[in-house]
Amino acid sequence: MIKVAIIIGSTRPGRNGEAVARWVYDLAVKRDDAEFELVDLKDFDLPHLDEVMPAAMGRYSHPHTRAWAAKIASFDAYVFVTPEYNHSTSGALKNAIDFLYAEWNNKAAGFVSYGSNGGTRAVEHLRLVMGEPQVADVRAQVALSLFTDFENFSVLNPSAQQEDAATAMLDQVVAWGQALCPLRK
Ligand SMILES: Cc1cc2nc3c(=O)[nH]c(=O)nc-3n(C[C@H](O)[C@H](O)[C@H](O)COP(=O)(O)O)c2cc1C
Q1: Contact 123, 147 (CB under 8 A)
Q2: Does the beta carbon of 9 lie inside 6 Å of ligand 1?
């Protein structure tokens, strides 16, 4: 069975991202076609990229890089839960992606975003980023509005159709994660 990480892409104190990721996780663990795990960037405490060699060389010199690499390598697919900051993803998530290369290769990814326009611009940027580490991004995505899927912009209360959107996204992530298995062998 493939393993899917649900990555919390905000490290901000008081972040909405944790509740969003837990909502995705609670939906995901009801499935029996994959294993799911929450991965919190905060737990890895990554500095701004401080490796001398490019990630594609795979020569990681710092314990924090090796710990992050081991965690990401252990999954077949990812759900990136991203806020929208200035029409893009968070610096913390982009930095965490930049740290690694081979660990991302030939894996699948889906996106759950949130923001005043559902965070869709952050996901468009992430889709561009995914090309270089060779991550296959699925079409279905979840875009949570700070106006209609949160109370007071801070308490997650997703509208009913968002659960259907999350299910469609997870269906594609699992299917593509499985389909890419031969490339990872
Ligand atoms: C630095 C910063 C920039 C932001 N820029 C945008 C933006 O461009 N578009 C948008 O819809 N929301 C924007 N927001 C609002 C965030 O999407 C919203 O606060 C969200 O809850 C942030 O995610 P987090 O709470 O998980 O950190 C911004 C918030 C911050 C902190």
Answers
A1: no
A2: no
Alpha-carbon dihedral angle through residues 80, 101, 180, 76, given to the nearest 10 degrees? -50
Q: Which of 15, 86, 87, when mutated, tests ligand 1's pocket best, judged by the most ligand atoms within 8 Å of its CB?
A: 86
95 pLDDT band (50/70/90 cuts)?
very high
Count of helix runs (H) and strand runs (E) in the chain: 6, 7
Q: Whose CA is nearest to atom 3 of ligand 1?
A: 85
Q: How many CB atoms lie within 10 A of CB 103?
A: 19
Reading the block at residue 17, the tokens are 């991202």
Q: What's residue 185's pLDDT?
A: 87
CA angle 114, 159, 112 (to 5 degrees): 30
Per the DSSP assignment, residues forming a β-bridge with 78 are 5, 109
Residues in the chain, total: 185
The verdict on the CB of residue 106 being under 6 Å from ligand 1 is: no
Task: List C-alpha distances in Å: 97 to 32, 51, 67, 131, 175.
Answer: 28, 13, 14, 12, 23
Ligand 1 centroid to residue 158 C-alpha, Å:
17
Q: Please count the CA atoms within 13 angstroms of the CA of 61 that sit on its side-chain side.
A: 6
Mean pLDDT of 35-48: 98
pLDDT in tens, 71-85: 999 999 999 999 999
3-state secondary structure of 114: strand
